[in-house]
Amino acid sequence: MTGKWSAVIGRSVRGQSAPVTYGLIGVCCLIFVIGPAAGLNPAYGTGDDLFAAQQAYFRRWGVIPAELLDGRPRALLTPATALFIHGSWLHLLGNMLFLYVFGAMAEERMGRAGFALFCLGCGYLALLGYAIANAESTQTLVGASGAISAVLGAFLYLFPGARVTSLFPFLFFLPLRFPAWVVLPFWAVLQWLAAGRDDQGPGVAYLAHLLGFTAGFLCAWVRFGRATRVKTPVTAPEGENQP
């Protein structure tokens, strides 16, 4: 989710009630821990048995584009189930960090029910769009990246002036604060560049990131319009540290 070149480590305003955001984080973490990818559940065995269990698990709950586009009833549910499945600890932690950073403010603006439907709907569309673009692929796709990318897109539209603490490798990983309108488009460009490469790693659905980001931005634009955008920088209350 974080891409290859930058990671956002800032946090939006504290003190908000964001039960959907924290609930999604909790559900994703719980599902991962009890599943085979975490390697913590002895029921899945070890070694080759664990690897086989992981592959079967991903194929059962993840998106397989070729099967999804065949219109099989069970396959049509997989873009929803795949949102809660992650392939590794790094995959999980990267996605949950972005949701933690940007989710609370977006949820506050959209409302709890609206934010939940937004995440599920945009996440589903992002994975469906990826499947359509890779119609013959039998590779399994899992993760909440499409939905969280949608949150980033909505955040960019709603809070363009919000300050985000970011790390950039080419700046020697110095923590610097930039407005969202600088950080998030830069992140989107990285995803676009990665999506166009032939040597991208297996299972990294950069196109799903872009589709989710675009869907989230457009949804916020259609629903809220220009009048409700927050143009002033949003920072944490004085005296509170940024994680």
Description:
By secondary structure, the protein is mostly helical. The chain has a single domain (7-228), classed as Rhomboid-like fold, CATH 1.20.1540. Helix content is 54%, strand content 5%. It has helices at 19-34, 47-61, 65-68, 78-81, 89-110, 112-133, 145-158, 180-195, 206-224, and strands at 7-8, 163-167, 175-179. It has a 3-stranded antiparallel β-sheet. A hairpin with a 7-residue loop joins strand 2 and strand 3. Helix 5 crosses helix 6 and helix 7 packs antiparallel against helix 8 (180-195). It is globular, with a radius of gyration of 18 Å. It starts with 6 loop residues before the first strand and ends in a 19-residue tail after the last helix. The model is unreliable at 2-15, 169-174, 198-202 and 232-243 (pLDDT under 50).
